[in-house]
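Check out a protein:
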Amino acid sequence: MGGAVTINAFGQYNEINALIAMSAYTTFEDVVIDNLKYFKVPKFICTIEKPIFKLALEANFGVDKVNKMNPITQIQNSNNRPILLIASSKDTNVPADNTKKLYSVSKNADLWIRDSWEHFIVKDCILIKVADDKEYCDKILGF
């Protein structure tokens, strides 16, 4: 959820000069449906569930917030500030297609889809050895 929260903040506050978002989803309802699909819930149930889930979100948080405070909408408020979107090609938590969709509607964005299986993107998923992942560090620091 960190990538999504970061994009939402970036879209709301022009004081944020740049954005790096990793494994971000497009909307909360999309990521829920992606996870249902991952667990092999039948397609017709996913199709029915998405609008029901969105209605539940709107009932709890309001239509305006649900429709405006989501990454796919907020990333469009970049005002030409630089963006780096990162995802893992085989992420099962948030499929890389989410990042590709965010990239397709963003301005001034760079995209890196790492050939990896893990949500956390860092090589071999060893978060305590991030500095040893030269490719990852070069990409972040180069941005």
In short: The first strand starts at residue 19 and ends at 22. The beta strands are 19-22, 83-88, 109-114. The mean pLDDT is 90. The chain is about 50% helix and 10% strand.
